[in-house]
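not sure who needs this but someone in the group chat was asking about Putative hemin import ATP-binding protein HrtA from Absicoccus intestinalis so here u go. i didnt clean anything up, its just raw.
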Amino acid sequence: MQNQKQSTILEISHVSMSYQDGQKKRQILQDVNVSIHAGEFVAIVGPSGCGKSTFLNIAGMMLSGDTGKVILRGEDLSMKKKQDWTAIRRDHIGFIFQNHQLLPFLTAREQLDVVKKANPEKVEQLAQELDLTKIMDHYPSQMSGGERQRVALARAFITDPDVILADEPTASLDSQRGRQAVKMIAMEVHKRNKAAIMVTHDSRVLDLVDIVYQMEDGKLKQVG
């Protein structure tokens, strides 16, 4: 069994971020520290405006904090130039968005191919795992909300990323489909030994994750 240091995939170390709000400086994140290990699915909960989305954007190399480090498999990404961020996101990070962000003019199969030329065998394997085989030639307009979300899951995993970041993945789904979507994320994370972070307001799916963190006043605390 790997020790904790070896199995750490993503580490957020002493990250803080603020912005100017008129005459005042508003602190969004305050010295946030968290490590996510291989095969670990964590959720971050908290009220709107507490810093959850900012945290996710920093973890996904969409934003940089004022201070602190983002370390992926032991490499400090904070030292990378911004022109390198696109390649980092493409090769190492899988995103699942609340509104799917599927391209309307591409079929499910093409959605997976457009991210990165994927191995056809891998596409078929994911399609079977996520129950997509019957809709691979369908366009988003021909899919149900749950089907679109499953295609988004497949797209996030198709590049075999180190980290999965899910932003309110149940927001556009009813409770049953939302729970099924999170179950599928958990299944893929555990099966493929990935690290995953889900930002959510949906307390009904928290039993499906390994660790829950509360974001409040820019600080992150483990729940329970």
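also The helical segments are 4-7, 52-59, 85-92, 108-115, 120-129, 145-157, 175-192. if thats useful
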